[in-house]
Write a structure and sequence with these properties.
The protein is globular. It is α+β, with helices and mostly antiparallel strands and 673 residues long. The chain has five domains: 67 residues, OB fold (Dihydrolipoamide Acetyltransferase, E2P) (Beta Barrel); 65 residues, Beta Barrel (OB fold (Dihydrolipoamide Acetyltransferase, E2P)); 314 residues, no CATH class; 54 residues, no CATH class; 91 residues, Nucleic acid-binding proteins (OB fold (Dihydrolipoamide Acetyltransferase, E2P), Beta Barrel), CATH 2.40.50.140. A hairpin with a 5-residue loop joins strand 13 and strand 14. Helix 1 runs antiparallel to helix 13 and helix 7 crosses helix 8.
């Protein structure tokens, strides 16, 4: 019997190029994920070409083979790098320097020219930048950007999380030179182009430690008995011009990243905290939506345009909340009026199909070195909802305005914020699970689904199953994204929605401001690559969220290290075939109870429909939402992983739980809607 010949493209097969994202597994095998292709394309390690994990690539595949056989391909071109900044170690041998990248993804060593070491010596941990990897280069060529001399392990870990997510730690020299040239001087020429709102009562409401005040509210009584309420947003696009180095840098980041002990900003501090920040007693350029509103929250008129404002006062959320509760304090009458209108807007939203999802957020109290020493619960009170409702109203108003503008009967390219309806396949098991607790769920149409969610969220308040049903409900939802294909925002119940109110920390808001100004000036210049830019911003938003989760997880592990061997009450927060996750009640820190440990008691199997692990002999069930007792057995900072073990009911030894009192905090809601 002759040996089978290696498959080669024959007369019946053709070679085609596809574009997709290269994902490399820990084992070293690669897969290119191509949109609208049912199956990923297998790429063997020798066929990665010049690509790294996460890169957008062109892959060459042969067509015409067996439909049952896995399609294999070869990377022939890198379309876009996911990452050009890396963390790793420098190795110098005589007159040759190499850079070994840290991480669990296979990646070749980089060659570093000696004049690009920037003071690094053999063994140093550094940040390196990929300079090029041309056709004739055997290895990627890089330069050392900085030597990581972190003050402690935690500081270094936070920096690595940012870099691994593709975010630069600082701003390049050419960006800072541009920023240094910017002036905050208010000119007569610019004032003449804007509506002057400086004589109207205006104030900001932000967290106590905020420095970048990107939104303000103005209010005054009108002669017709209505109120004029302005939502004023920092005019970042006045300073950040398209095509500038500053603009390119902001677009590359696309978002600020909020880690437990730091903010990695989208824009340099001079812009975010000085030029654009709506600080009290300073004239500032803004982009505004000004409403005429009745005391019944009926909107009679809207005006959109560039303005100049003068904030009279800077409030914290705590101060405004106290005013709402006591009905006393500085500017208490306008604050109480705004709160009353916000409550009416909120009720109308839910009546029109918005879903009232809320989740408990916690943050760590840190000492001067960034070490976690306590837990704080973030509470969303009326003061937060006041700001949230007016920001939602402004975002909705801008999207409605732009949606009506057409070019050659076609919608103008615009970065909408959309949210698709729930996935039917995810909704079925969730509704079946909710029924086990006695909650009916109507899935006949989108409106009934929203109504069922709201009824459920209202009915579970204070009940043992509240946490599990809230968390599972959120997981059935699609993710909100940026796109020029406007399908509305299901979760908010809006047909048109965009992000307009946070341009200091979100690049899509800057894009919205630019398109909006073109519409107002009737000088439309449609962005041909709008959808690509939207996708980039959505990708960066996801990367930021993953970095934030990683940062929080690191702090959880760092915090729980002091409680190794301690026993706590917890709630099962997730279930998989290999074990279940438990979130401690006292600190909201999540760890894994492994199936290997459980199987010393029984043979447990995963019941997906019941979100549970079930013992074959004892029928013992560990279901999502159940309260159990656990012991902290391992805290691995490198892997950002906590391991718990289940304490069987009635076992010897009382639960010596160290009670950690949870404080509450009013913090500004960074809306990801």
């Amino acid at each position: 019997m002759s040996k089978s010949k290696k498959n080669k493209p024959g007369k019946s097969s053709q070679v085609k190029l596809l574009k997709g994202k290269l994902e490399i597994s820990r084992s070293g095998m690669g897969f290119v994920v191509v949109e609208n292709e049912e199956r990923d394309i297998l790429v063997k390690p020798n066929d990665f070409g010049k690509a790294f994990h996460g890169d957008m690539v062109r892959v060459q595949v042969a067509t015409g083979g067996s439909p049952l056989k896995r399609v294999e391909g070869k990377v022939v071109d890198v379309v876009e790098r996911k990452q050009t900044i890396f963390v790793g170690h420098v190795h110098i041998n005589k007159n040759i320097a190499f850079f070994e990248v840290s991480g669990d993804k296979p990646i070749p060593d980089f060659y570093i020219p000696l004049d690009k070491l920037n003071g690094a010596v053999d063994g140093d941990k550094v940040v390196a930048k990929l300079l090029k990897w041309d056709k004739d280069d055997k290895k990627p060529i890089a330069s050392v950007e900085s030597i990581l001399t972190a003050s402690d392990e935690s500081d270094l870990a936070m920096k690595e999380i940012l870099i691994d997510a593709g975010f630069s730690l600082g701003f390049e020299e050419e960006v800072m030179k541009e920023v240094d040239q910017l002036s905050g001087k208010i000119t007569r020429e610019e004032i003449a182009k804007r509506k002057d709102c400086r004589d109207i009562l205006t104030f900001t409401i932000d967290p106590v430690d905020a420095k970048d005040f990107d939104d303000a509210i103005s209010i005054r009584n009108l002669d017709n008995g209505n109120y004029e309420i302005g939502v004023h947003i920092a005019d970042v696009s006045h300073f950040v011009k398209p095509g500038s180095n500053l603009d390119k840098s902001a677009y590359a980041r696309a978002t600020s990243v909020y880690l437990p002990d730091r903010v990695n900003p989208m824009l340099p501090e001079k812009i975010s905290n000085e030029l654009c920040s709506l600080r009290p007693n300073e004239d500032k350029y803004t982009f505004s939506v000004i409403f005429q509103i009745t005391n019944r929250a009926e909107i009679k008129h809207k005006w959109i345009g560039r303005t100049i404002i003068h904030s009279n006062h800077r409030f914290t959320y705590e101060e405004v909340q106290q005013t709402i509760e006591t009905k006393e304090g500085l500017h208490h009458k306008p604050i109480l009026l705004l709160n009353n209108l916000a409550q009416q807007f909120r009720k109308e939203r839910f009546d029109n199909g918005a879903i009232n999802f809320s989740s408990t957020e916690v943050r760590f109290t840190l000492d001067e070195k960034g070490k976690p020493i306590g837990i704080v619960v973030k509470e969303s009170k009326e003061a937060h909802k006041l700001i949230e409702e007016f920001m939602l109203l402004a975002n909705k108003t801008i999207a409605e305005y732009v949606s009506k503008i057409k070019i050659n009967k076609e919608p103008i390219p615009f970065p909408y914020r959309i949210h698709d309806k729930p996935n039917e396949e995810k909704l079925k098991p969730f509704s079946a699970f909710a029924r086990k607790f006695g909650y009916k769920f109507d899935v006949h149409n989108e409106k009934e689904i929203a109504s069922s969610f709201n009824q459920l969220l209202n009915d579970v308040q204070g009940k043992p199953e509240q946490h599990v049903l809230e968390q599972l409900g959120i997981r059935t939802m699609a993710k909100a994204v940026y796109t020029s294909n406007n399908i509305g925002h299901y979760g908010l119940g809006f047909e048109n929605y965009c992000h307009f109110t946070s341009p200091i920390r979100r690049y899509p808001d800057v894009m919205v401001h630019r398109v909006l100004q073109e519409c107002l000036e009737k000088n439309l210049k449609p962005e041909k690559k709008m959808e690509d830019r939207c996708k980039h911003c959505s990708d960066r938003e996801r990367a930021a969220m993953e970095a934030e989760r990683a940062g929080n997880k690191y702090k959880q592990v760092e915090f729980m290290k002091q409680y190794l061997g301690e026993e706590f009450e917890g709630v099962i927060s997730g279930v998989a075939a290999f074990g279940f996750w438990v979130e401690t009640i006292d600190h909201k820190c999540e760890g894994l109870v492994s199936i290997k440990d459980l199987n010393t008691y029984d043979d447990f199997r995963h019941d997906e429909s019941d979100y549970a692990l079930v013992g074959l002999r004892t029928k013992k069930k560990f279901r999502m939402g159940d309260k159990i007792n656990i012991r902290v057995v391992a805290a691995n900072l490198t892997k950002r992983q906590l391991d718990y073990e289940w304490i069987m009911e009635g076992s010897v030894g009382a639960i010596k739980t160290k009670k950690i009192k949870l404080k509450s905090e009013n913090s500004k809601v960074k809306s990801k809607k």
